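Hi team,

As requested, here is the filled-out complex form for the uridine 5'-triphosphate run. I kept the field names the same as last time so the parser does not choke. Let me know if anything looks off before we queue the next batch.

— J.
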Amino acid sequence: MMSTEKAREVLATFGQEHLLQFFDELDAAGKKRLLEQISSIDYEQIDGLINSLVLSDSHLDIPANPAPAPVLPARPTDQAIAEKYQQARLRGREVLSAGKVAAVVVAGGAGTRLGISGPKGCVQVTPIKKKSLFQVFAEQILAASRKYQATIPWYIMTSPQNDAETRLFFRKHNFFGLNEKDIFFFAQGQMPVVDKNTGKILLADKDSIAFSPNGHGGCISAMRDNGVLNDMAKRGIEYISYFQVDNPIIKCIDPLFIGLAVQEDADIATKVIPKRYPAEKLGNICLVDGKVMIIEYSDLPEDLARKVKDDGKLLFAFGSIATHIFRRNFLERITDGGKCQLPFHRALKKVPYINEKGEKVIPTEPNAVKFEMFIFDAMPLADKVVVFETERSEEFSPLKEASGENSMDTCIRDQIRRSARWLEQVGIAVPRDARGEPAAIIEISPLLANEPEDLAGKVPTDLKIKPGDEVYLE
Ligand code: UTP
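And here is what came back:
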């Protein structure tokens, strides 16, 4: 930890001396806390980021001439692809049964748009049983480990802000039936938050700096630094199924997706969906100099986002749903000998802070820049990336916003729609209203089924669902 004199000197060098403005008012514990936090910051790095991402207009170098990336279709379009998928599914089942697959969820985000204070994974999302996101994933993983008769260890990335609460939540719920020794929590790194106009680091309190988690891309270094990659190696894990915490209809374990990575000998496999409209808030899957990469919706110039091909379809037609398979060896390779330094991006957010008068300010408009790494920036480092299309209605309904699209309402609607379709696929009639929406509330436990084929023989054939019914199947 720096001495007060040293801290003053370093902060003055980088124009951040205001961090000590209230130092003399603090008690001994407050002084210690603040000095520790000041000492934890890499000022060379943060100064570079402030200059390039806050004080200058040139936020990002967009690669010249991105082209669309080749995408494997969601459903086979010919016999050869049908056979390829059949083989891939078998390969996926093989590696699962051999215990070579682990799950990783990134759950360190702050969930500011949703407006919650605790971990997003604890939010109750299912329509009837009100299961939390964490429970939904735990049950999927438990069901898959039963189906493939193998352990699927689960690594949960938290942030310094929500780590303790996340661990407590799992303990309180007895790890949702999973074996405690197969669950591993690890916290990602954090970065100071700065004022969007001045680049000054914000104080969250007179004795503490405003920090935020360093983005889902922080996952890769955090896996190395916290011994996750080592633990995986010891357990014989070869493939990692990576997903985000905010999508209740994600397939945490998908044998076809895993099998495609195995079959194609890919470092990464990634899932995409057709965009609804050109500027939809999804990362665009692109090809640059022969490398697959994702360009964030906010970074793709509008003319490119809107560009159409001769057939009238969007050139950049596919967006990422942030679900990937990583080969463990690939993550070992890119973290070998130190950190995996992915580029930082700026995220404009509303962040409460202490102003120069010592007053707490709760902003109503974005006032601050957070520095975040994005996991998909690892793609250009891969030798091979396979891109696989999937169906939005089956796999993507993120919980991001407090209302409107991508809110709790749409998440619940999409879960019910999917359950209704699955039941209809196994011959159960579901009442529908005049708009064609299911007229009953249906919830299927992941312990019963994670895809319609799991339902075969498990649902009574004489199941009658009436309008207004609540039907929970487990
Ligand atoms: P988002 O980028 O949607 O952010 O995260 P968020 O933090 O959940 O919500 P907002 O933007 O503050 O409203 C996408 C996924 O990445 C994880 C989130 O937990 C979510 O699963 N994430 C994001 C991290 O694990 N760490 C981060 O630093 C950022």
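Two things worth flagging: The longest helix spans residues 79-97. The chain has two domains: 62-400, 407-474.

Thanks,
J.
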